[in-house]
Sequence to fold (543 residues):
Amino acid sequence: MTTLEQGLDISSRGEDLQPGFTWRHYGICASGIIWREALRFIHQRERFVSALVRPLVWLFIFAAGFRSVLGLSIIPPYKTYIHYQDYITPGLMAMIQLFNGMQSSLSMIYDREMGNMRTLLVSPLPRWFLLTSKLMAGTLVSIMQVYAYLLIAYFWNVVPDSMWGYVTVLPALLISGFMLGALGMFISSAIKQLENFAGVMNFVIFPMFFASSALYPLWKVRMGSPWLADYCALNPFTHAVELIRFALYQQINWVSLAVVVGCTALFLTGAIIAYDPSRGMLSRKGG
Amino acid sequence: MQTAMSDVPALDVGHVSHAYGTRKALDDVSFAVPAARFCVLLGPNGAGKSTLFSLITRLFAMRHGAIRIFGHDVATAPGEALRRLGVVFQARTLDLDLSVQQNLAYHAALHGIGAQRSRALSHAVLARVGMADRADDKARDLSGGQMRRVEIARALLHGPRLLLLDEPTVGLDMQARTDILAYVRRLVAETGIGVLWTTHLLDEIHPDDAVIIMHKGVILRQGRAAAIAAALDVPDIKAAFAKLTGSRPVDVSELV
Fold:
């Protein structure tokens, strides 16, 4: 071990701390959290590949098989007949974000057990800020995955009506990614039973994905089951899909925007409360 | 400045109780860690040490009692309290896929310390624990003892005046244990940092150390190790611990 005379004199610091935190502190903290998430993402190539393979399987196989089975009429935002693969692309983009949100929520449980969550939560900055930054980091990762999917879909001839769609979809992806990430975070903190991926698949991902407008338009669902169509219309995931679908065609679906923003606020508040030590669930688990 | 600082204890735990459902993990626990002291929190597994750590680091909410770090209440002023605190958790908390330097930079960012300053600070704290030449290695490639040293360096990075270590020598070989203990003792002597060191290993205690003996959520004795032994009319802290808890003391010879 080297001598203690090396390095900075720790005793001289700590006393001259200015009380409170500046915007600079907040900015450094948020970018540090995002930077770490990006590094982890780069190191986990399998995660990236599987996140990409999943929607591509749906696009290449499912969409091709169903192409002739499902007849699609012209519904907004579309102005012409579209192929089924064009129809399900917004749903698959949202699916990428749904999986990403659930995966990062499970990794938070894993982190909590492994102690990485502790490293984050002993930061002196407010906890709501730490959790929101973590959410932003996860959302940015999901957006990278979505654009990778769009790139491959482009070569499969799945393109929006204008190249501008790739730009206008970005804010929609930010909001929908935030909503699905916040949902995952809330689930990770509140529901102990869902601590394995099978549980999350069965009780969160499948009901959200299949009972939505991702694979079939709601008017088509209504023909089969009015009850199911109502359920789909209430599903926040439907609105994430529609928000993305409209944004990809440079339009805004105001109802969906309102639902997604409202749900984001709801889930995020729930997650922050759950991770707040004075009210939260952390201490109830008795770890 | 030093005299003013030393009046306020580095850590002040006052009448803290905590329960999981009906099981009481901590029952009216009070003690203080003065600045520039090496304090040992001694207790067998299940004594409530980890619960206490979770309360001090604000992972759990305080239900009864108060914890202050240099006078800043953890419940009402968590930011001011936590920024004066460095923690080494019992579980390994390094990100194994990242390099040592990246782990430290992440921690610095969490404390609002920017990249440039964090690089200088990292170099300094790593040099202190003799790990400066491993800065670019992946955490995965380090031995258990080296990881501990990096974790201590990381806990010191933001310049805390109080350092908590939760069973830091668990799972380490003899040489690494001795090194880390000696290192932290020197840190206290030379920098004036206050240290709370929890352990269930009695051979880590010197007769002059401040010791808090905890058992089943209750503090049985606190004071200088030699004084505790003398008051119980036994030769050393090992015998004192056995007499107080009625348990056979854990000796390091059983672990190797």
About this structure: Chain B touches chain A through 62 residues (CB under 8 Å). The first strand of chain B starts at residue 11 and ends at 20. Residues 94-159 of chain B form a domain with the ABC transporter ATPase like fold fold (CATH 1.20.1580.10).
